[in-house]
Design a protein that fits this description.
- The protein has 164 residues and is α/β, with parallel strands linked by helices.
- The chain is 50% helix and 17% strand.
- It has nine helices and five strands, in the order ββαααββαβααααα.
Length: 164
């Protein structure tokens, strides 16, 4: 395993991702409008949710980090160098395992189940570390955040129901 920086325009999806384009195109993410993110957030994602690649001549084919790659492609110019983790000598079965961990298992294990949970986390981070929050997302109203998630403000920010 080796970490190095490579230009975005040298990174391509592995063939298995290409075969899954229909599924990936119809996958919904909690964040519909990535425009509320900052460049700092995408740089942090490159470190915490890295693009994992196999090298093939002068190109790199990613086997994990699909969403990070997509967001990097939105925020950075094609010639921008980004860090990638390069793996070598993987069997086809292990390559597929990385890909399916990326598109299925990670969402299952670390996904946030409801938009209301996002609202709760947003309030907590905004209260405890507002500058850190605004390093990661543009300062937005609750209504704008809800729109970026494709729902109404009340879906995210309704107070929890009180139990007797």
């Amino acid at each position: 395993m080796q970490v190095q920086t490579v230009p975005l325009n040298k990174i391509y999806p592995h063939k298995t991702y290409q075969d899954l384009q229909y599924v990936l195109a119809n996958t919904s993410y909690q964040l519909i409008d990535p425009g509320i993110l900052t460049t700092t957030a995408v740089e942090a994602l490159l470190m915490t949710a890295p693009i994992i690649v196999l090298r093939k001549r002068d190109n790199y084919h990613y086997i994990a980090g699909h969403r990070t790659y997509v967001l990097s492609s939105i925020f950075f110019e094609p010639a921008q160098e980004v860090p990638v983790t390069i793996l070598k000598g993987l069997s086809p079965r292990l390559i597929n395992k990385y890909i399916y961990i990326d598109i299925f298992l990670q969402r299952l294990v670390i996904g946030i189940p409801t938009k209301a949970d996002i609202g709760c986390l947003y309030r907590s981070v905004r209260s405890a570390a507002p500058q850190t929050l605004y390093d990661l997302i543009c300062p937005v109203s609750q209504k704008h955040l809800a729109r970026a998630l494709g729902c109404s403000k009340n879906t995210i920010f309704l107070p929890p129901k009180r139990t007797k």
